[in-house]
Amino acid sequence: MQSIGSLEIEGLALMAKSAVGSRLWNSKIRPRILRRDQNTCYYCGQFADTVDHIIPRRLGGNDADDSLVVS
Fold it and tell me: What's the average model confidence in pLDDT over 39-52?
């Protein structure tokens, strides 16, 4: 790992990967889950327009369709 001032090269690579994943999430995954669940919140049954991980990614959750719900 190389440093440039306070920035680490490895960290920049992770940020770039995250940005690509974010575009995929917004253009492909999120609309598919909203359509599947008909914009109905998994928790309360009301209209919703956000998508949530059942198991948070930080705890090992993933972006598979069965791991995501409208919330």
Answer: 96
